[in-house]
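Section: Multi-chain targets

For targets with more than one molecule, the full set of components is provided together so that the structure can be written out for the assembly as a whole rather than chain by chain. Components appear in the order listed by the source. The example entry contains three components.
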Amino acid sequence: MRNSFVARHPSVLAFLALLALFTLGVSVLSEGFGIGLISTSFVKTLGKTLCLCLIAVAMDLIWGYCGILSLGHFAFFGLGGYMIGMWLMYERTRLIVEGSLAQGALPPTEQEVVDAIGTQIFGVVGSSDFPLVWAFADSLILQLAMVVLAPGLLALVFGWLAFRSRVTGVYLSILTQAMTLALALYLFQNDSGLRGNNGLSGLQNLPGVEAPQAVISLWFFWASALALGLGYLLAAWIVSGKFGSVIRGIRDNEARVRFLGYSVETYKLAVFTLTACIAGIAGALYYPQAGIVNPAEIAPIASIYLAVWVAIGGRGRLYGAVIGAAFVSLVSSWFTGGQIPDLVLGPLTIKWVDWWTIVLGLSFVLVTLFAPSGIGGLFDLWQGRRPPDRHGADLGPDAGALREREATE
Amino acid sequence: MTRLMIALAALVLFCAQAMAQETTVQSVLQAHRETIEKGSRTSIGSAIDAIAASGLPQAQEVLQVWAAKEMWQRSDDGLFYRGTEKPARQVELFDFDTGQSFGTVSRDELSQIKPNSGVRAMIGTALVQFQLSDPDPTRRAEALDAIQRSPGADLLAPLRASIPAEPDTALKARKMRVERLLTIAFDPDEPSRIAAIEEMSGDLGVDMRATLNPLLVTRIALAEGLPETANIRREVKPGDPALGVAAAYDMLIAAGQAQPIPDNEARKALLIANMVDGQVAGVPVHRLDSQEARDAAYVQLAQAGLVPRWSTAEAPEVVVTRHRFVEVYSEPSAAVTEAAEQALAEIERRVGLNQAIDLGLDALSLASIYFLAAIGLAITFGVMGVINMAHGEFIMMGAYTGYMVQQVIADHTLSILVAIPLAFAVTFAAGVTMERLVIRHLYNRPLETLLATFGISIALQQLAKNIFGTQARPLTAPGWLDGAWVLNDVVSISYIRIAIFVLALIFLGLFLFIMRRTRLGLETRAVTQNPRMAASMGINPDRINMLTFGLGSGIAGIAGVAIGLFAKVTSELGSDYIVQSFMTVVVGGVGNIWGTLAGAAMIGTLQKGIEWLNPSNTLAAQTYMIIFIIIFIQFRPRGIIALKGRAAGD
Amino acid sequence: MSTLLEVSGVSVSFDGFKAINNLSFRIGQAEMRAVIGPNGAGKTTFMDIVTGKTRPDEGRVLWGERSLSLLGLSEAQIARAGIGRKFQKPTVFEDQSVHENLLMALQGPRGPWSVLFYRPNAAHLARVGELAAEIGLGDHLPRKAGELSHGQKQWLEIGMLLAQDPRLLLVDEPAAGMTPEEREHTTAILVEAAKTRAVVVVEHDMEFVRRLNCKVTVLHEGAVLAEGSLDHVTADKRVIDVYLGR
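Its structure, encoded as tokens over all components, is:
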């Protein structure tokens, strides 16, 4: 079965091969391996980029294939980061606290250890008690489960409410944006139990691991590459079969799918929840490489940027999403990193740090207008694939669905 | 100076009487010479009272002179004079009774009477009775202010005395009110206090609450130590929110009813202190890593008499239940506290009612802001099905236009009058440009419009940041909009908010007029309902779309000026309002101005309501509001006012 | 003849306009029925009600031998119960191939889980080929539906309907915009289908209806005006009034 699947979809094999090659190349050239052509911080950047590619795949699945423009997937991403961050922070603080308490005359009781950890973690928000959400923080297994369960559950509840009331199109996008904002604002509070706007920090240190950051960064890089590879494979498998047919049908004409006897809401909910889980996993791998997770990461703007990446890369094709996320996020960090010399235009000096956002915004408008299939569309040109010429015939009935090139062109 | 003239006139009038009684200021002062010289707070009262009660017309002047440290005493005969310092250590003396000058005398022959601050306060109190009857109404009002600032029992009598003769009706009413308040606080006669409380019950003034609250101050005490007459409010069980177990136990310790017990930390220290050869009471130290093990070791030590006794059975939780704790009023009279409780309850009820009105006004003003911010969005969404993510940035552009106008035109009133049409023009032009360049090409692809306009939004926001910097720019409201319309101590609303409310009403009217009475409105409605049919009837939908988009954007610009008047103008101004605007449109329903109005009213009320329930946390309020809206959508997916039937599409 | 679908006393109004007014209708197990009527007679709304898209204000819609009420069911449940619908405008999934379109419509479990693990077996592929041949698209299986001509899309949609294997087919103006040859083919497909199941055809074109050679129901202002053979109803004075204007 797998053989035939890969054979039917050569792009998947090509992608996996490229990913493996890339991972191997970066590993060999990294500091952790000894050659050191690629600095540890850049390995982290690349690892983070892989995570962003993974969430872009999830976004493509929900938007490009299922037609739901979710402006909330970065909330799931952040939530995943919070979940793993809780364990990392708890465990690291526990080791430190136990170390210092061991200096005392009596061996510490469990309660003393927990109290000391609480004071350490929640001191910044003027508290020392563990809120309920930290109940599983001492268990890696449970917290890893939470990485998938927390975003999945949120997506399930929100999606159930939203899809059940048949909210679609822009309405749904606005609603997901509202959900994201609500979550971000909630986390911004000090009494949310997740350290308010301080967020969780020090996540780059793996508790109990003595290895230097150069090596740890490589581990995470590998994990991210593996996650991306598996995520890509899963997404490709899902969209290749009848399930993919159904969700693309939902994207193009929801009512028709319904009259074929498929429960559109259930399918939407399934895709929404699944992609939320993928986003959570991506976040759980991203934030240990970033070192810190805070509510600002969850702000609606991040989710909109995610849509921008996927749109620039090309919707409705998984490699497009990966290319978009990698390309835009790397170029973004290059421009905002301040390494590009200022552009002097007579009296006006263009500082790229300030002007990059404007360039991004405008180029995004241009892509939407002139290249709806994004960078991925270049592959079509290369393969000589042409969209069907419909001679101005009526397009599908569902306004807002992703379409091939407008017939009037 | 005037006062001196009045004093002189009074002098002439009362001269004969004063002569007849043979009491002079000097004689009164001499009678209390020693206390005045001593200047002690404890004894000086008699001297002040004697002067104040002397009935002499100069009494007020004497007290003022005394308090102002202008009273001098001649060293050789001990007589008191008013003195003004002259150059070269000379002092010119005046007689109190006649006001005549005695010429200048060297300071060496005099001693200055310098009352300390405590004495000056007492003199001030004595002076109040004179000020309360002062011919100048502003001084009488000041005296009342002084009384309210620092009320005292001794002010009650002079205040009461001054009421019948008060000519000014407003001041008289105020005096009576203050008299009631003082009666409640200080009158020794219990029935009259209660009468005053009942009379003032339901008064909304802050001063009334400030008067009642001290009467109801309570403390929690151990019932056993209290006198029979104690005014007890209620019994308190330890563990109540009002009385923690630890606090109750501390009270027992203070009363000698219980022994202090070493807490976990203290016992741990004792365990460490009694460590012998790596063992505590025979238990190896490494095994003391749980509270149970430590407690057991401690009990061992206690049995050996090495540490204070302690057992889990004598825990504070158990001990405190053997005692009664009560909440007692500081005010001894039960009748007074009861009346005060009732009055306060009545006041709180009315305050609650008025707060609800105030909250309603706040919500109304917030609703009008959201309405202004959302109406443009609703127009473009309703007519064209386009969600304009850059709408917030148009609001920001309007606000910055207002700011720029104020840089050129200094007069605030004029600049606002110029800024409103200019902001409309600027954002109208921006909207039309955007429609022509971008949105026109994306009709029927709403999700892509949403993303393209988002691209414009981030570009515009960053552009504003690059031009104006990140710090907030002021947009100052004209002076006549400063201040607030105050109904009572609870209900008030600032004029700016009233102005915004009026502005929102104007726009509602304007919009209705355009839609119902003009050709443009007719064509717009036609395009909204069926663009193809409209086009075939000779309406150019392109032109209509362009104009509606411009109109929606223009209104956003005006909303920007309005919002800028009370919020700081920054590049993020728009994004602060955009989500609420979206929510307004979503909740209200698309394609109907009344829906937008209803949506704005609902969002505004909801936000204020939640803030009122949870005033400390505006972040949480927004979270709850959004959750509420998501749930609301379950019941009315198309908003409050929705198009029905086949026209609504599916 | 046992009744498959019974609609009785159904009314629905939009903003005060009565689109359907006390409509009653019944159809048997294997029967062809043409529904005709002027614009605004309520033909499409009638289909909306049967398929669950519109909820009536009053009335009953009963289905099958066990007289199951359709009013509480969702569109998908009604479709799974055995009612297939073809829209006026051809609605096929233009982005997907004819094969994928037919496969999606093919009778089978509709739950996400079973669909996710679904892989077509030989029998399914054979059925798809058979259907494609029946609707004249046997040579077009790998083509994208968007590339088909208007008539071919209509057929594809009918094919998808047949793939669902419904007991009742609701067909909205199947012949609109077709060439005479295409019409003939469409008629043949429908007549063939009506042998094993109930088919309701909404149509304007009297010639087409005549060729279907079946019982005709005339709708007017949301209610049944006349019912019977085509010749019978066209002789009816009221029907003539309605069609030719008063």
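The two ends of chain A are 41 Å apart (CA to CA).
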